[in-house]
Mutanase (Talaromyces atroroseus), 630 residues
Amino acid sequence: MKVSSAFAATLSAIIAACSALPSDSMVSRRSTSDRLVFAHFMVGIVSDRTSASDYDADMQRAKAYGIDAFALNIGTDTFSDQQLGYAYESAANNDMKVFISFDFNWWSTSQATEIGQKIAQYGSLAGQLMYDDKIFVSSFAGDGVDVAALKSAAGGNVFFAPNFHPSYGTDLSDVDGLLNWMGWPSNGNNKAPTAGANVTVEEGDEEYITALDGKPYIAPASPWFSTHFGPEVTYSKNWVFPSDLLFYQRWNDLLTLGPQFIEVVTWNDYGESHYVGPLNSPHTDDGSSRWANDMPHDGWLDLAKPYIAAFHDGATSLSSSYITEDQLIYWYRPQPRLMDCDATDTCMVAANNDTGNYFEGRPNGWESMEDAVFVVALLQSAGTVQVTSGPNTETFDAPAGASAFQVPMGFGPQSFSLSRDGETVLSGTSLKDIIDGCVCGIYNFNAYVGSLPATFSDPLEPPSLNAFSEGLKVSTCSATPSLGLTSTTPPETIPTGTITPGSAITGAATTTSTISTTSTISTTSTFISTTTTTTSSAATSTTTGTCIAGTGPDNYSGLCSFCCNYGYCPGSDGSAGPCTCTAYGDPVPTPPVTGTVGVPLDGEGDSYLGLCSFACNHGYCPSTACQVES
Ligand SMILES: *[C@@H]1O[C@H](CO)[C@@H](O)[C@H](O)[C@H]1NC(C)=O
Ligand SMILES: *[C@@H]1O[C@H](CO)[C@@H](O)[C@H](O)[C@H]1NC(C)=O
Ligand SMILES: *[C@@H]1O[C@H](CO)[C@@H](O)[C@H](O)[C@H]1NC(C)=O
C-alpha cells in the first residue's frame, strides 16, 4: 500500500507550509494550502461491520464531498481494534485518510502509555492522516492526560490536537492543536442557552483561538443536536441545543474565521441527531432508530459541499462559482414543539441521571427550537423560492449563491419550488409531512432533511433498527423505513384515500412518483408500503449479496429462518445475534408489513427483540417466542 501521489503532493505542501510558518501566527494568517476538513465518526456503533469494504461507501462519499479525513472516535470496546483495522484499510483503498480520536468517556486520563501505544499501532498505516509529517491524533475530552508521556509511548512523532478545554485551566504547552467540540450555542454547561447564560459558538472559537496562541484550531461545524434516551438504556439523556439554521450560519462564519481545520460533528452519531452521513451507513442500534428512522440528513452534506470547497480555497465567503447546480435543501422537525406527547413518550419516568443529562418528558431546551421549516437555496443565479408548509405559503427572492429562509410550520405536506424568469426550475413535495401528533408517540426533535433535486433513497437497514421498539408505548409504529424517493416535479396523479395498514402502494418502487403526498405519517396510520421496502432492499443488493436463507439454534430456528430469508439475519454479519446466514443472493421481496408490533415473550432476552419485531411485522409471529405488544 502506498500513499497516492495526489495526497503525497498535498502532504509535501502541508509540510512546506508548516515549516515556513512563524509559531506565533494567528489562525487567520496561516497558509490556506493546508486547510483540512474532518468528519467525526463513531466506531462504537459499527461493530456489525465485517470487512474493510463495509467502510468503502462512507470513505467514498466523504471524499466526494471534500472531507479530507475521518476522526475515528473509539472507546475501549473489544471490537475497536478490528474496526480500526477495517477503517484504516478502507481509507487506504479509497485514497482517504483517518486518525484516531480517543473518547475519554471511556479512556482514562491515567492511560497515557496505552493511548500512546495504540497510536503507534496504527500510525504507520497508509490510511493514517499525517500532518507536519506527524501522526495526527485527537480526542473527545481528556483534560489531564499526560501529553508528554502519551507522545513518548507513541514514539514521539505525534501531532496531538485533543478536545481539551481551555476553561479548565489545562496545561496546553505540549499539545499541537485543539478541537472545540461545542458546535452549538449553550448555557456554558452543556445545555441550551438561557437568557442569563448564553455562550455562542463564536465565543467558543475566540476562547480556543486565544488559548492556542497560534497553534492550529479544529473548529466544529454541527447541523443539529437532539437526544432522547429514556430508561430503556443505561445512558439516559434527553436534551436539545438550538439548531434551526445553525449549519448554514456556521459555515458562513467558518469561511470568515478561516481556521486551520474544521471537524463536522458528526458523520454518524444518530443518537444525538447530528449525523450528516447516510442512514444506510451500516451500524448497530443504540436505541436512536426511534428518532432516526425515516429522518435522512443527506441534504446537509450537500449544503456543506460548496462551503468545504470554498474553505479549501481560502475563500472568506461563498460565491456562486462554488455552486455546481441549483439546489434547495430543506429541513424541519416532524411535529411542533408544544405537541403534548406525555401520554406515550418514552422519557416520562425516572431514569439514570448520573450524568445530569436526563430530563423527563419534552427534551430540555425544547423552547430553543423554532416551529419552522428551514430552507437553504444554493443557486447559480438568482431565483424565486416558494415554500408551502401545510396552509402557509411564502415566496422569497433568493440571490445567486447561498441564502436561507424559514416559514412557520404548518400541518400536512411540505412543498418547495424554485422558479426563474417565470419558469419552474425545481419543484417537489417532501416525503415527510408535519403531523398534528407525536411520531411513534414520542417527543421527536430530530430533523427531516430533504432536497431538490431529490437525493437517493436512504433507509435504515434492519440491524440499525434492532432496538426500535424498546420502550415505545405505541403499537402503531413499526421498525421499518417507509420513505420512497422524492419526486422532483409535482406528481401527475395524486394518490387519494386512506392508506390502511399492510396495503401496498403500487407503482412507487421503480418510478419517481411520490408516495407521500397525501399519506399522513402519524401515530394512527401505518408508515409502510411494501413496495418501498422492496426498493430499499433492492438498492442495497447492488453492492453486497443479501442474505436469503439462514438458521439458528433451537428456539431461534424458526425466527432466523424467516428473517434471514428476507435479508435480516442478526448474527450473520458480525453483529450480535443468534442467526447464521446460509445463502446469499438477490434479495427476496419482503412480505407486506402487517403493522403488528412483536416483542419477545416476558423473560426472554434482548436477542429476540429485532427478530420478533421484524417477523411479526411481516406476518410471522410465533407465539413460542414472540408476543404482540399491547
Ligand atoms: C443567546 O444569544 C444569541 C446571540 O446574541 C441570541 O440570538 C439568542 O436569542 C440568545 N438566547 C437566549 C436564550 O437568550
Ligand atoms: C438530572 O440532573 C440534572 C442536573 O443535576 C437536573 O437539572 C435534572 O433535573 C435531573 N433530571 C431529573 C429527571 O431529575
Ligand atoms: C429455549 O427453550 C427452552 C425450553 O423451553 C428454554 O429452557 C430456554 O431457556 C430457551 N432458550 C432461550 C435462549 O430462550
About this structure: Residues 193-195, 198, 200 surround 2-acetamido-2-deoxy-beta-D-glucopyranose (ligand 1) (CB under 6 Å).
